[in-house]
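INFO worker-7 received task bundle
INFO bundle size: 2
INFO processing item 0
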Amino acid sequence: MLKKESSPGRLPAAARRAQLIEVGRAVFAELGYEATAVEVIAARAKVSKPIVYEHFGGKEGLYAVIVDREVEHIVARISEAISSGTARERLEQAALAFLTYVKERPDGFAVLLRDAPLSKRSGEMPALLYDLADRVGGIFAEQFRKAGYDAKAAPIYAHALVGMVAFVGQWWTESPKPPSAETVASHIAALAWMGLRHLPKKPAPVAAAAAKRASRSGN
């Protein structure tokens, strides 16, 4: 028995779902979550609103799927990038993997940086950053222990590095004449690595120490 063909212009369910994800990512990247309406997504995908609801239950469901996919995509890249090499090489490879993601999936990066629904303010985006920071933190902790430093401080530096890469990535996408991803990654890694190489065993607040000295000299 022959399988009934789809009517003209009608996509199979899986293909339609993939199309809506692509369209939704572009719309969320352009307008942000709050300003995006199901009507806009449906119109750009050239389908009726009920089709969007049928596949995702609404705007928030579609947004959640898009963010989850972007998170998994970048985490997989970072995880692979730091799987081998020296500590410094892993740092540079992680930064390069992140920047390559930014270059190849600008809409996805824009979605992750833009406003999320109120109920998700502490959800997907922090999850991405924390996951990234945890992997980098493992590298830092290993090197800290070898050098005789307190490995418990590694998460501080890991989150600092991840935040730096994220902000640099945003600047990089908006720069009129951006340097290559490799160049940016090498600078980020150099800054982080030089800081780690000269890290004191127990950093002390410089401003507080200076204030104490000034107080004593004034007495």
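INFO item 0 finished
INFO processing item 1
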Amino acid sequence: MTASDFILIAPELVLILGGLALLLVAAFAGDKVSGVVNALAALVFAGAIVALTITAQPGAWAFSGTVRIDSFSTYAKYLIFAAGIVILALAPRFYEREGYRSEYPVLILFASLGMAIMVSASDLMTLYIGLELQSLSAYVLASFTRTDSRSSEAGLKYFVLGALASGMLLYGISLLYGFTGTTSFDGIANAFGPEPGLGLLFGLVFVVSGLAFKISAVPFHMWTPDVYEGAPTPVTAFFASAPKVAAVALLTRLCVEALPFGAPAWQQIIAFMAIASMLLGAVGAIGQRNIKRLLAYSSIANVGFILIGLAAAGNEGAREGAVTSVLFYLTVYLVMTLGSFLAVLQLRTADGRMVEDMAGLSGLWKTRPGLATAIAIFMFSLAGIPPLFGFWPKLLVFQAAVDANMLPLAVIGAIASVIGAFYYLRIIKVMWFDPPAEEAFPIEGGAMERGLIAVAAAYVSVLGFALIGPLTAASTTAAASIL
């Protein structure tokens, strides 16, 4: 352990020191300084981004090779920290009725710290530490509104099923260690020969299954609709964005770095989860009337599309393009998801009550045309309908599948996209063609919320195509760093 190790993890140190300091402030000053703590937490994220920019490395190891600092982890951390700032920006107004509590931004900081460790992990122990730090914070966040029985139920379900997933992950880690004698990704890759034994394959299956829970991939998705519906809306937005980026990045690094010789095995598992997630996400959302549950199934479906790219990475010849498509998709998906939830948070009645039923959107275009237009852009983009920017990442993952000789997977993805377009278009039909609902939404968010919605809508609109060049270059560099 040297000074250079700590320099390499400067962003994580910023989160650690900032989180601990704000925890003390929250403990001694209480909720009366919650607004100050929230603003300071956003500054901590900004400091972490600055530290990340300064200390970025093309490829370096810290703490005896257990932590990898490279372009891949740097790319993922930028997305995670940016999402954290947005989540902190939208939380105070949501909690203003029951009072905003100071520990909320602290939990967001520590959850993001766990995610930063996850994407930099190059050892199974580091992987588990980061994953559990993120999960423990997430369990509390899910049940944060203690007076709401739905929130308490969401937290309990998430905790019980999360504990099960952690057990599966630990069992898989123990198998990989037992049959390879190491927890290092590089050591496992060297021991995992072209013809792995049955024990190694079992370990692979359990580890991938444990991580699949974190990304809501079928058949480990069962917690997602209930938790998304019951958790406070800002928490749901958080679950649907930053943790997805971290878990997918971790799964990608694990498969590509630690299990390259196990590609024929994990490629089949990932492909199955991709198909099942796309189809269940598309079909399951059709009967939903709660907006947050619908977005939960949308999240499951989008994870399926992302996994198409990861499955294609099992083919060595198409690996770089496949990993690039995964990172590109995550970048666009993050903005689409955060924008959608920012728009949902605008649906408040005159007494400040949140409206989550789809019927409440009826005739929104006549009462709030700007908000209705933004929601329409997000829905069209999530559906992958050209010429909106959400079409491009889907095209990239389909192209990656074709390049990897997995044409049937790309065809199934295209079919799932068509099915999924139904429920996105139904939302637009309700907003634009149904008579206005009895409950209008007179309460508008502040200038910051409206600005964030406008920026997100512009990003995923036709204007987003101007960013294809720099995003492709950044994601290609990040993908090359783990190959």
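INFO item 1 finished
INFO post-check item 1: The mean pLDDT is 86.
INFO post-check item 1: The beta strands are 59-62, 67-70.
INFO worker-7 idle
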